[in-house]
Design goal:
mainly beta; four-stranded parallel β-sheet; 39% strand
Length: 171
């Protein structure tokens, strides 16, 4: 919800994430369920809830997790348990896509779509990319900066953690 509000703003927006697990909107198909930051947004993780300044946060102790694990049921080395996960956890796919993610754990993406009836290649915000890569982060356009962040427990057929294609870049 905070990202929806931030997308409507013209100036810079900081979103502070307290320790906890955050899920994307799963009311849409799994291939579309993702966090979609825009170029004016900085997502900062690692807050306990008492801080008044960003430099007081502690991402090492206060884990802020952006997760694609819809039901919290993933098991290590069990791809079947990930079949209900979001294909990609973070996606930048528009002319305003990008931003900064700092101090966040990105987990639970399952970019393992198979090709049936054209489902493998979906057009997403004007860009077409296979849904079998970039389970953690996919950048189709825009520039996304990851700082002090970890991508973990994601699965896919290729480029599992990060995929950048088209006119997108990841720093």
């Amino acid at each position: 919800e905070a990202l929806d509000i931030a997308r409507s703003r013209c100036g810079p927006v900081e979103i502070w994430l307290a320790a906890g697990t955050y899920l994307p909107d799963f009311s849409v198909p799994l291939w579309r369920a993702s966090f979609r930051p825009t170029s004016n947004v900085t997502i900062l993780g690692g807050f306990a809830g008492w801080e008044t300044e960003a430099d007081e946060r502690d991402p090492q102790s206060n884990h802020s997790i952006l997760s694609g694990d819809r039901f919290g049921n993933d098991k290590a080395d069990d791809l079947e348990s990930m079949s209900d996960n979001a294909y990609r956890v973070v996606v930048s796919a528009s002319e305003r896509g990008g931003g900064v993610i700092d101090g966040v754990i990105i987990s639970g993406g399952h970019a393992a779509a198979i090709d049936f009836a054209g489902f493998y290649n979906r057009t997403y915000c004007g860009s077409t990319s296979p849904l079998s890569r970039g389970a953690g982060v996919t950048v189709l356009s825009g520039s996304l900066t990851l700082r002090n962040s970890t991508i973990t427990d994601c699965a896919g057929q290729s480029s599992v953690a990060v995929s950048a294609s088209g006119i997108g870049s990841v720093r």
